[in-house]
Amino acid sequence: MWKTILRRILIMIPEIIILSIIVFLLAKAMPGDPFTGSINPRAGVAQIHHLMEVNGLYDPWYQQYWNWVVHLFHGNLGESYQYNEPVTRIIGQRAVNTLWLSLFTVVLTYLIALPMGIYAGRHEGKLPDTVIRFYTYVTYCIPFFVILVLGIWIFGYVLGWFPTTGSVSPTANGTFATIGSRFYHMLLPGILGALFGTVNIVQYLRSEVVDAKSSDYVRTARAKGVPINDIYRHHIFRNSLLPIAAFAGYSITGLLNGAIFTESVFSYPGMGLLFVNSISYRDYTVITALVLLFGILNIFGTLLSDIILSIVDPRIRIE
Amino acid sequence: MATEKILDVRDVSTAFKIDGHFYDAVTHVNLQIKKDEILAIVGESGCGKSTLATTIMGLHDPAETKISGEIDFEGTNLVGLPEDKYNKIRGAKIGMIFQDPLSSLNPLKRVEDQIKEVMDYHTDLSSEKKHARVIELLSQMGIVNPERTAHQFPHELSGGMRQRVVIAIAIACKPDLLIADEPTTALDVTIQAQILDVLLNIQKENHAGIVLITHDLGVVAQTADKVAVMYAGQIVEYGSTKQIFKTPKHPYTRSLLRSIPQLGGESDDLYVISGNVPSLQKMPASGDRFASRIPWIPASDHEKNPQMHEVSSGHLVRCTCYKSFYFPDQKKKKVANELN
């Protein structure tokens, strides 16, 4: 199996190279430039040209790309045009925020989704199943940002249970209070993200359980005289959870997509909010770095899914 | 000992709920099986053979099915038996072999664990003893390298091997009754013969009664002691294998036997029974259920409410139409006979 994983990692290298070229070119293809909006309005066109020249923005694309890659290998992603700070430092701070929020969301998602899906599948057609299905359809139909805005309005504004912006309260003093405040700020975006994220898992798991219930191997187990609760424990749950386990790797992708919405709506200083802001400022260095990072995380997520699947499902052993 | 009755199915009907109504899939079936006996149930697809088997095993959801009659298994009536008591019998005293050996095994469990599972619930054997029994069973099944097979997953085995594993599960606790639901249908002919041999060998050792469900009349002729021919949920003919094959009476039995391809037969054309088994909702409420497929027989030849008639000792036939039944191409001969 190690061979397979090593080969998959080797295949990832050309994937990442192609990804980086595309990302770089797409960022360059955006109209506008990083300076027009940010310098003294009295400065002339010549000055902007000068800045463009100095920063190498008039070089041919492959030249610019090559410089970028060489710097990349020195751990230097360039400076943000917007913040005049190294890109690595800007992303670094926010990546930690996004990481904690994503981790919290994913844990919460599975904590909610697994019991729901299993319960709905086992008691298919009964009232709780109908309620759960209704919930999943409704949540599925509402756009994510609408859920977020509604959530903020109801729980943040009307009821006032949760903070509606930021990742930590500026008045929090001491390590303990800071951690507490950070967690408090994560709660509402985390819960709303999890409620949205559960939908796919619940529906998938439910139909897996329903299928497994009427499968031939479950009939065989019943013919062996295995009590129904044991059949659920030893046969149905394990077999149904398998595709869900494999799904975990891909959920990284979903979380990053979700982060863009969640962080924008909650003004939560993470990578998603940084990404949206950087696009409006044409902050090329930050955009390319972030898209590349998201892309690499996606590729790793897929790899993770394949590895998980090959561990839990004996039928998948790629030689 | 050899004549001990194990299973007595008396007047059993199984009805399925479809759109709020119950429809009979099996109607008033009577069967007996003794130790060391093989009873074959034959009939085409959709005539209730498998439903009868799963009814005996109690595998139906009580909310969706209605079972009436009495299934006497070694003195216990299985109809309406609570699940916990049924679980003591299933796997231990009645073993079942299923049709499709690939889907009948859990794809995520090793062969050994799947065979051990049945022993977990019905024996107090230690783990080592269970392992020894698994190896013993697999070699009894004619598996060459049982240690290796025990550690494999179902997808690593061939169809024939998988079916051997399914049989090993069914006989692991030496049941008194074995229900084999088309055990050879999914396999090719050479493997079929091997699997049947395995079944016969088990029976010699365990003295179990076997209910063999099949639509392969060749298999029946080779193995069965008694035959029940089922059509549209009813048994239409019942007798010893010899009686059924030498002197078939019911039009359905005769049609089935006639539709077997014969090497070197007079005609190249294969006899085909026209039409299909009526679906559950379209089952005629009274009259001979086979009548619609032999339309050249006048209605007056059928009984209004077809009963079983004993034509010779232990040989039962439903409906009186067998007396005047003939195949369409035999008509001339028959008319000629009547004139003489």
TrEMBL record, chain A:
CDD domains assigned: TM_PBP2
Q: Which residues cross the membrane?
A: 9-27, 99-122, 134-163, 183-205, 241-266, 286-312
Q: Show the PROSITE patterns listed in the entry.
A: ABC_TM1 (PS50928)
Protein name according to UniProt? ABC transmembrane type-1 domain-containing protein
Q: Is this entry keyworded Membrane? A: yes
In the UniProt record, does the keyword Membrane occur? Answer: yes
**Alphabetical GO biological process terms:** transmembrane transport
Per the UniProt record, the source organism is Oenococcus oeni AWRIB429
Q: Which UniProt keywords apply?
A: Cell membrane, Membrane, Transmembrane, Transmembrane helix, Transport
From TrEMBL, chain B:
Organism domain of life: Bacteria
* Signal peptide (UniProt feature, chain positions): none
Localization recorded for this chain is: Cell membrane
Query: Topologically, how does it sit relative to the membrane?
Result: Peripheral membrane protein
Question: Molecular function terms in GO for this entry?
Answer: ATP binding; ATP hydrolysis activity
| Alphabetic keyword roster | ATP-binding, Cell membrane, Membrane, Nucleotide-binding, Transport
- What biological-process GO terms show up in the record? peptide transport
Cellular-component GO terms for this entry: plasma membrane
ABC transporter domain boundaries: 7-257
Main location class: membrane
Q: ATP-binding: present as a keyword of the record?
A: yes
The family this protein is said to belong to: Belongs to the ABC transporter superfamily.
Output this protein's name: ABC transporter domain-containing protein
Species of provenance: Oenococcus oeni AWRIB429
